[in-house]
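Hello,

Our lab assistant flagged a job as stuck in the queue for most of the afternoon. It eventually completed. Since we weren't sure the result was trustworthy after the delay, we are filing this so someone can double-check. Below is the sequence as submitted and the structure that was eventually returned. Let us know if re-running is recommended.
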Amino acid sequence: MEPGAVSGILDTTLAVVFTWVGYKTARIVWKYTPYSYPNARIKAMEAKLLSEQRFNELAESRTLQNFVVGLEDTDYKDYLSDVSGYTLGEIERALEKALAGTYELMVKILPKRVSPFFKLMLEEWDVRNVANVVKAKLSGEPASDYVIEIGSMLPKVRAMADAKTMEEILVILEGTPYEEPYQRLILGEISAKEFETELYRMHYGKLLGYALSKKDDERIILEEFVRLRIDRINLLTVLRAKAAGMPAEAIRPLLIPGGTVKLEPLMHVEDLSMALAELDSTKYGKVIRDVRDEVERDLSALERALERHILERLNELNRFYPLSVAAPLSYILQKEREVRKLRAIAKLIEDGVHPERIKELVGDVA
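-- returned structure --
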């Protein structure tokens, strides 16, 4: 072969190799670099999460005013600054706003290719508000007491709370995703519980659709996160229904599509104990076995166990994909747990529970 031909082949080969290396390098940079800053920031935020010792100190507050003062050196300070009457309602609303603020921060600091997922997650407050107001109206309670001052639909939700008739609410919801299920509700085609389930079906359908639109590790992580949350809701729904003796045909309309567990066998067993036994062969078998005795007495024990399981799984994904969306999702779960514990402490303080008992009870909160 002529030297010139050999040289040409080598040049072409080197060009191909360098092009491939350049592509792979650019791909790695595109994939991981955008997570460097937000994940470093999240690490710093994790260091500021409240310790068990701090929860125990807050349990000693004895009054809600002292409880609020005890949080003055934390990130909750700004959210609690408007609390003046030191009522449980005021404190719970402030803590809700703090949690929503965490979601909003994720929208701002995460790469644009995943930040819309956290914006979609914020819509859960719209779902809760719409469902809460409608249920309050149906039961004749003051709907404004159930409005959470969070969400893109807040003006409409306030108008719904002030509405004089159920038909007026339909006009307010016109053009929103919630118009059609609400119309079915006032026509008597679905129950209030089925209406609420429909709102959550729509919400989780959006989240799952977004997750499935992603690629590579982002799809793996987001999809697993959504399906785990759907499983948690569905398992608790079925088990509570079996504890109440509900038949399968009454349970089916209350389930959310998209989970990973086959629920049909659970719905046809006779009682809660048999439903738990049926779950033993699923991927949640170990989770349930660890708390089986408690669950037989109190299903909230399973709720806590499932929350822990989801967090543990996200932490595993975070270790496997260190620069990814797993870190912000893990932090969100930790923040949700922190807010649940704070709300529980505040409620127990208001109820006059002894500090030592508060520590015991709150220690069980997932």
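-- support follow-up --
The delay was a queue issue, not a problem with the job. The result is valid. The domain at 111-213 is CATH 1.20.1690.10 (V-type ATP synthase subunit C fold). The two ends are 73 Å apart (CA to CA).
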